[in-house]
Amino acid sequence: MFLKLLSFVTLIALSTCEVVIGQDEIDEVSGLYTIEGKVYPPEQLLGAAAPSGKWQVDVTLSINDGEIKGFLREDGNFVISGVPSGSYVLEVNHPDIFYEPVRVEINPKGKFRARKVNFVQPAQIIQVPYPLKMKPLMRLKYFQAREQWKITDFLFSPMVLMMVLPLLLMLVLPKMINDPETKKEIENMQFPKMTNDMPEISEMLTSFLSGKQPEKEKKPVMANKQTKKRSQQQQ
Amino acid sequence: MMYNYFIVICFLLCAANCGWSYLEQDSWTNVELHHGLSSDPEHFSFRGNVTIPSLNSALSSLHQIELKTSELNVLTDLARQNGFYRLKVTVMYPNGKKQIFLTSSKACSLLQSELNDILWISVGPSGFISSVTHTSLSDSIECDVNIIEHIQGQEYNTDVLVKHSELAPMPDTAGFIQKVEREREARERGEVRDNRGFFSKYWMYIVPVVLLVFISGATNQDAAK
Amino acid sequence: MADAHFLAGALTSAMLVLLSTTVVVNGLYEDQIKKFDWRSMHVGAAKHIHVDLNHFQPRLLLGTHEQVVASICPKTGEIGWRQVLEQKARGDIKLLQVSGFADDSSDTAAAPVGTHLGFDMLTVQGHAPALVRGWNTNTGTIEWEWSVMPLNTERAQDAHWFYSNSLLYHVVPTWRSHLEVTAYFGTSGHTTGSTSKIMAAWIKPESCLLSGTFFVCVDGKQLISLDLVAKSTQVIATTLDTEPTSKVQALAGLNGVLVVNRKLVSVNKAQTVCDTLQSSSYAVGTFNYRKIVAYGDLAEGVLKIKAAYLDNCAPVPELDQSLTFNADYGTPSLRSFDCKLKRNGDGKSCLFVFSTSAESIVAVQQNRVRWVREEALANVVDSQFIDLPLADSEGTLENEMKGKSVDATGFETDIASAFLRRITTQAIQIKSLFLHVIGLGPPPTDTQRAGLVRDSFGLHKMLVLLTRSGKIFGIDNIIGKHHWQLYLPNVVGFGNDENMRLIVQRTSKHFPLQPLCTIVAKDLSTGNGVLYRFNPITGRAAEGGLLQLDYQIKQLSLLPEAEPDFVKGILLLDATNKVHVHPKHATQLADGMYLYTADVKTSELAGYFVKYAGEKLSTTPIWTVHLCGHNNEQKIVAVAGKSSIEHVHSQGRVLGDRSVLYKYINPNLVAVITQAPDALHKSILNLYLIDVVSGSIVFTMTHRKVRPPVHIVHSENWLAYSYYNDKVRRTEITTIELYEGKTQANSSVWSSLKAPMMPLVERQSYIIPTVVEALRETITERGITNKHVLIGTANGAIIEMPWALLDPRRPIASTTQGREEGAIPYIPELPLPTENFINYNQTIARLRNIYTAPSGLESTCLVVATGLDLFVTRVAPSKTFDLLKEDFDYILISIVLVALTSGSLIVRHLASRKLLKQAWK
To answer: Where in the sequence is the domain holding B194, given as residue range(s)?
Structure first.
């Protein structure tokens, strides 16, 4: 009976009292944390194009599209204070250098975890050391290279090849062959081939336009020419 | 076995529930129509009632009153002036809420279609009606005065069509990752070969050689002759 | 682990391969930079200014309303360094304290050597959390920072901060009750002890302020104040002569001194002031080792600066200055000044810095304006590109042709007369050129002398920018020079989330009529509409200038060109649904126009039809659309119509089987996006495509678990919009394309009242790896060039994304299917190669908006990006197909030509010689 009364009274007390959160540490109540890390200078990458002022001024760190920003100290360290718990993408913005973004997760207990950013597979975890160390990866390439004029482009273009190579062949080959008989054969072969093909086409055209008579006349004339040449050579 | 069937049926039901244009909370809706036949912007007269028991099924029951001859004459006058036939629609939801919509179409095209018209009702994602539009079935844009003089019927022939909201697509990351994995596995196993055929790969080199051979052969024959 | 690495590698390699083979990379060449683009950097309207000429490096430190901290060179006005702080409440600068400031009560912030605990400048920003940062003002780097999260965030919004004796005090008032004062060590953030609570039942909202260490409230004719650092909490009451008519302000630099009704009043018994001085703005400083107060006033265009010693109130004659002050700078108020410390200075080295109502910063020295910073450009609201007037010779030609073409009606069809016309035009051109060369031609106008002449490609235009403060600039878009400025005081944007508008009523195509622009705005005091007409080339008012209307403007639209003077009338719908047209002679053209309004508060759209009958205009409401949802939870977030000057070149899309899929090109289609909180899905976005002539909703789509910010691009038959997916925490872009089908309903004229009601909708979503701040599509005169979407990111870069990558018809499964249409296989993430950044390393801070305009060339589109900085450039989405490329090899081609002709001549000669030889054998 007494026990029942006691339990009843405690129940009433518990239902009416208020829970008070400890107020000694302000940060824990509000859940604000600081992210720390270091950004390494990009001097080697910038090389000759390094600006006269300090590179730290060109760099800003931003979380969630500039909702929270961080700035660099002279030695490259940074501290971003007043960050509530959650998952954020931390980016280092420099107009000429690429730094890889990092996803920083702060769970409500205050534990930090940093991992690589992957939008296609958001659940993938590749951890990155915390406090953050942001190293400059590469110089951002904004420009295309102009096409340079190279001599090989000119020499290997199909037009030039078709003109130059046969020319070389025609001039060089006969000189390379020392056998006199094959030389004569080549000379004989080449000329008639050309004279045979081309007049035939022109004769076809003229025959179309004016009738068939000139064909027969030309052929004996050609034959005469050839026999004349052969007779000359044989002599 | 039965357990598997049960799981499959549950899965199908869930899929059907969360896909496409299916309203989560469906209920009846009552639509009251008043039309404005004259060019006076304030004057509307009762035209009819549409009761839609379920927006998902798009079934509806119409009850419309016929046009009186005097009203038809007023409407023809409006059509001659190329005015707008305005329709005031009062939508009543089961929770007692009322909303008034206004829609119009050219009076001339309504008469040309011989009072055959369509009422399009656009429904938002949670079952509230976002717009009611009135169109008529006539094809031509031009207003032919002769046709509207000789309109026979005075009864409305109305279709009520419901347009639902569609669900937006998500970027297809899962399919893409699977495709990349499949290609990687295929490459590892060495399945991907260029098996188009010998000729299709090397035709570019074979054809000129063949041509050259033919030509030299032909000229040899000519020379030999 | 290895899987994941390989996948990532495979992804990137796949993207690279595809990029190299299919997508055209539209990169710039390094030698093209700065030839047709420029950037101007700004800091924003000044909130706190501190000039210091006696430091080893003279500096002007600024904290601005745009939440930027910067250091400016006092001699030239150029930015030394600039740090852009956070946006919105977190970055609101509450206090800017510079160490070494000549104030009796504060110390310099000495710090132990080797630590980072000193500061040159301390800023306090935000209220929950409040961030305190210490800066090194020589380099602009931060020294330290710490944050404070107050327990009660609502009261913290009204908090004040002040710095005294190397302690930073945080004052949180609870109105009509008490004040809580907490002191922190400035550099470390540790509190000195507990919060002291001072009972003060007399404090009221809207009438209290902080002056030095005194908390002062205005109570009728009395000033009740309290010294927050004194040991005794005694309340001091000071009576005034009259009740304050304007807002009471604190005078920076003195403890407990306020400016009441243009006079100085001191509540601090230890500080006396001269109560004979009368001015609108005061500043405190030192001159010849004595403290003085300087004041400046503008009267009839003349700015007078005077000063008086604080100890005996005697005037300082050396600092008396007066200069003519251009009205276009706005109304000045003196903020800060400094003189170089000398024993017997003559006042010539004193620099006075004013901030004006037009958001400019003016520096005055030795009776003239030393430099001006136009910070109104940090808030550009609208922009237009205006064609420049024709050159002299062409102008006379146009005049002649105008006279001749009046009686020629159907001459195009007659070949003979067309030929005659061509001969006559060329004869006239020769004559005018001859006259011009001799010098007998007409004298050049002002604009022609300034070089403002249209070039042959139409790339040189006058960029007219309208800013939020009412100031208008005319800027050259090639070199960035400010040609003219105008200031329109007391105007403000419209409610309903709409800004002021800049409208072109007449372009420069109608020589000799000058182009005409109008600004439509709302009057600050009455709320009625205001129209201001001006000539955008010269920057002077035209056609009457300012016109105050007697009604509130709800909606406006442009009418087609009116006959005699080619002016497009403006159709205005007022709050009582009546219409008006300006200018009056264009009233008849408003017959048959359709207007629509979208109300952001009630999420309702309404359509009106305008009729002209009996010399009067009347409107009839013809449709309404309600997007509010069952319980009014849906709010309109974005409304996007199509550009009115857009031209669609192709009617359809050719598919793989050679059939045509016709596009649904509805010029009256408007996209509306609403957002609603949801119990199950946290936040829902709904997209509605509404035809605003018939009022029909063509298409509705719902996105779950996504939230704003939303940016839309609506053009031709497609729509692309970006939003933030809360579930997977990334930004996504959805594109929608509308098609009519295999047949076209009406190929000649579009009528919304007879349009097909259910077009085919293709849709697809993509992931974009950055945060999107602005979206805009490129636009060209004839629409032949490809459309690229310019994406402005939060990092300040503008990326040119080809439409082929955003195409919703990108095939998912097969790789060969879409090749006929020009569709690339689907990858869920959009590639952002840095070669596509059109602003290379010129990042634009706080990018807010991108504007595009067509140029005279079909291949080129002019782009302006605005935000805190301004960037102007050109893009050529299909490369410059109508121009010879810049590195065209004139030399190589001429060499080849010469070589070939000479070679053929030589060979002919040699061949004839050889034949001759052979014939002689």
So the answer is: 173-224
